[in-house]
Amino acid sequence: MKNGTRMTEKNLEILNKNIMLDLIGDDPVMIKQFEIDFLKQAKESLQKLILMYNQGSFSGVKEEAHFLKTSAAAVGAEQTSYLLKALELSGEEEDKPKCKRLIVNIKTSLQQVRGAIIDDSASNSGLSPSQGDNAS
Amino acid sequence: MQSQNKNQPSKIELSESKLLRLSDAISQANIGMWEYTPDTQKCYFSGKLKELIGVSITSPFTFSDLKEKTHPNDQGKFDVFNAENLQSNTQHNFDLRLTVNKDELWFSLKSQVSISQDKKVTFTGTLSDCTCAKETASALKLAIHTKNNILDAGNIGQWQAERNEKDQWIWRWDKRTNEVFAQQSQDIDSLNAWGKRLHPDDQQSVLNALKLSLTTGEQFDEQYRTLLPNGEIINVHAKAKIGRDNQNNISWLDGICVNQTAFFKIQAELQEANNQAEARVHKRTQELQQAKERAEQANQTKSAFLSMMSHELRTPMNAVLGSLDLLSLSKQTPESKDLIETATTSAQNLIVILNDILDINKIEAGKMQLEQRDFSIAEIIDNVIKVYYPIADGKQIKLRVKEDPLIPNLLEGDAVKVRQIIFNLLGNALKFTSTTAEKQGEVLLDIHIVEHNNIIYKIAFSIIDNGIGIEKKTQQKLFTPFIQAQLSTTREYGGTGLGLAICGNLAQLMGGQISLTSSPNEGATFKVELPFWRSKSQTSPSQDLLDNTNIAVINLDESENLQQSVIQHLESEGAQTRVFKPENIPANIAESDMILLLAHSDKVFPQLENIYHQYVDDIRLLIAVSREEISTLRNLLPQSTILPTSPMTRLQLLNSVKNFMDNELCLELDELELDDLPITPKPMEEISDQVNVLVVEDNPLNQKLIVKQLSTLGYQCDLAKDGLDGIKHWENTDYKLILTDCHMPNLDGYDMTKRIRDLEKQYSKKSTPIVAVTGAAMTGDEDHCLSTGMNDFVSKPILLKDLKQVIEKWYAND
C-alpha cells in the first residue's frame, strides 16, 4: 500500500505480500507468523463482532472493527481491511442490515485470506496449492 | 257262757277293732285287697283296690272283670286260679299291666291259697301299684345293657376294687379285662395273676400309681405295656376313679382298661413316618439352604460383576462426558454445538442404559423406585430423536415425530423411566425396519393426550413402524426378559431381549400399560399409555416462550401438514402467526418480528431464493427445510439460518425460533482454522537494557509488528497495553520517544498524551516526543492528535522507512 493512494474495492488484493515486505523486510518465516497470528486474531474478533451485533451493540461493532482493521492492513489483507473500515462506519451509523452484510462478507474475505496463506505455504514448500499436506 | 264285765270290750269286739285298724293301715299303704273262690265265682275287692285300678267303689266288679281289664299279654297269668291240686298256703304272685285312666300301669298281684274243710279253694291276696319300681328296674336294665354294649363295642374291660369290712381290697374284673390280659378264667379277680402280666419295666410304676390312687384318691391314668404268655407285648391304657362312703373314706375304685396296641402301633408308625418325614425335610431344608446360599453367592457374584462392569464402562464414559463438557465450554458454531450435544446425549444415554441393566434386577426384585418430579415430555422426545435421527438417516428410514401441542410443558413423573421406555421402543422400531427397493422404511413417534382432568394427564406414546412385524403367537412372550421374537431375530439383529421386558415392567410400575399390534411384514405399533400428575409448579400462569412474537409464515410447499404442525406449536407458546402463500405476501410483512419460510422440497428453492433476497435486509428470515436438502440450501444461501425438519420436534422448533429471535446472526467460523499449517515459531530478538522508546498499543499483532520494526532499525522498546499502562511506564522511565496508538481501551492515546503533558508541566519535566501511530484515517484526525499535545502523526501500518524517518526526526532531538 502506498501512502496517499486511495483504495478502491476493485484493486484491493486478498493478501498483498508486498505490505509485509515493506513493513518488516524479507523475512518469510516472520511474515508467515504474522499472517497466522492475524487469522487467529481475526477469528476471535469475528466472534465478538457477531456477539455484539446480536446484542445490538453498534459501538462494540465499531470498536472491534477498528481493532481488527489495523491488523488486517498490517498483514496486507486489503479486502478484509476495507470491509472492516466499512463496518466501522456502518457501526457508527448504526446501520444494522449493512453491518450484518459486512460481517458476513468479512467472514468470506477471511476465508479467502486463509486460502491465500495455505496456497502460499504450499507453493513455498514446492507443492501445488491443491495437493496440500497429503501430497508426497 | 262265761259272764263278762259290760264295761270291758269283748274279745270279738277287740278282734274286729284290731282288724279294722289293720285294714286301714293296709289301705294307707296303697295296697288293695281281694279274695276269690273259683268254685263259686264269689269275689271280694277292697275299695282301695278299686281305687287303684280306677273302678268305682260302688260299681259291681268281678274277678273276670279284673282279668278282662288286664293287658292281653298278662291275662294268661290268671290261669293259675283255675289250676287243680292246689295246696293250701301256697303263694302265687305275678305282675300285670292294667289301663287306668288311659295310662298303662304295672301292678304286683300277690295271693295265697286257703282250702276249706269242704275242699273249697279260696285265693286271698293284695294288689299294689309297682309302676315306679318296674320302670326303674327297666331303666336300670337298659342302662346295664347299654353299658355292656358299649364296653363290648369298644372292647373295654371293666374292673373294680372294693374295701371289705376287714379293710381288705377285693378285686373284680370282667371277662373282657381277662381277655385283654390273656388270662385264664381261673385268674379272674386275681390281682397277683394280673400283676405278673405287667411288663417288668412298667410293673413298679403301675403298681405305685394304683397304690397312690387307693391311698390319696387321685385318678388312676396309666399307659403301660403287658407281656402276654406268647411273648407278645401289648399296650394298655387304664383309667380309674375312686369312690367314697358316707364317712368320706375311700371305699371302692371303678376302672376301665383298653388294649391300645393297634393305636400305639399306628402311633409308632406315625412317629416313624414323622421321623422319616422330618429327616427328609431336614435334609431337603439343608439342600435348599445350600442352594439358597449358592444362589445368593451367584447373585452376589452377578451383582459384583454388574457393578464392576458398570464401573468399568462408566469410568471411560464419564471421561467422554467430561471432555465433551469442556469442549462445549469453548466457543463453537451452532452446528458444532449440536454435534457436541448429540455426543453428550449419547454418552449420557449409554450411562443410563448401564443403569437400566441394573434396573432389571431391581424390577424383578420389586425394589425399583419411581421418582416424582417435574419434567418435560418435549425434552425427552427431542433428546430421543437427536440420538436416533443419525441412525435412521444411516438406514435411509424416514423418522417422523408428531407431538400433541396441548401436552403441558411440565408434568410430574419419572422422566428417566419414560425416556427409557421410548428409547427402547424407538430403538427396536429402527432396528427392525429397513428401506428396500420396494419399500421406504418409516418410523413414526406419535405422542398425544388420551384423557386428562385437574389432577392427571394420561399420555399415549405410539411407536409405529413398517418393519418386519411380529407373529401373534410370539407377541405376548416378548415382554418376558431375554425373549426375542425368534432365534433368527437375535442372530440377525442382535440385542439382549431385555428392552421390552423393561418397558413392560416400567409401564406397569408407573400405573400404565403397553400394547402391541403387529402382523408379519406389515410392521408393528407399540403403544404405551402412562398417567402423569399435573405439575404443581404450573398452578400459576407462566409466561409463554414466544409471548408477543409476531411470526409471518410463508408456506412454499403444496402440503399444509408441516404448516399446521408449526402453527399449532408456535401458537401454543403464545406466538401470533400469519400464514401466506408466496404469491400473496403483503407489503407490510416486514413489520413482523420474523419470517418463517417453509420449504420442504428443493423444487421451491428458486422461489425461496427470491423471497430471501427480497427480505433478508429488512427482517429476520428462518428457513424450515428438510434435513435432506440442507446442504443444497447451504450452497444456495450460505448465510441463511436453517431450521431442519423431517423430523422436527416441538422443542427444536420452539428453541430455534427463540434463539433466532435472540441471536439473529450465526456464522460457522471453523473454516478459519489454520491448525494444519506447519510453522516454526521464530524466537523474538532479545531486548537490550538500553530502552529509550515506549510503544503504547493494545493490538498484540501491532505490538509485535512495531517491536520487530524497531528492532530492525536498532531500537529497543517497552510495551504498554493502553494509555494507563503507558503513563505508568512514562513515570518510571525517561523515554526518548513514545509511539502510541490512538484508539485503546481504558485510556486512549489522546487522553494519555494530555495527562503526560499535564504531568510534565506539574513536575517541570522535559517534554517527551509523542507520535501517534493510528489506524484512523479520517479527515481531521491529524489535527486532533496535534491538539492533544502529540508531536507527530503517522498512519498504520507504518512502513519501515517511514518509521525510521519519524524516529530519526524525534529521537534525534535529544
TrEMBL record, chain B:
InterPro entries reported for this sequence: CheY-like_superfamily, HATPase_C_sf, HATPase_dom, His_kinase_dom, HisK_dim/P_dom, HisK_dim/P_sf, PAS-like_dom_sf, PAS_fold_3
Coiled coil: 267-308
4-aspartylphosphate found at: 741
Database matches in Pfam families: HATPase_c, HisKA, PAS_3, Response_reg
Stretches assigned to the Response regulatory domain: 692-811
Record EC number: 2.7.13.3
Reaction(s) this enzyme catalyzes, per UniProt: ATP + protein L-histidine = ADP + protein N-phospho-L-histidine
EC supergroup of this enzyme: transferase
Alphabetical list of SUPFAM superfamilies matching this protein: ATPase domain of HSP90 chaperone/DNA topoisomerase II/histidine kinase, CheY-like, Homodimeric domain of signal transducing histidine kinase, PYP-like sensor domain (PAS domain)
Occurrences of domain Histidine kinase (ranges): 308-534
UniProt keyword annotations, A-Z: Coiled coil, Phosphoprotein, Two-component regulatory system
Gene Ontology terms for molecular function: phosphorelay sensor kinase activity
Record protein name field: histidine kinase
UniProt source species: Shewanella hanedai (Alteromonas hanedai)
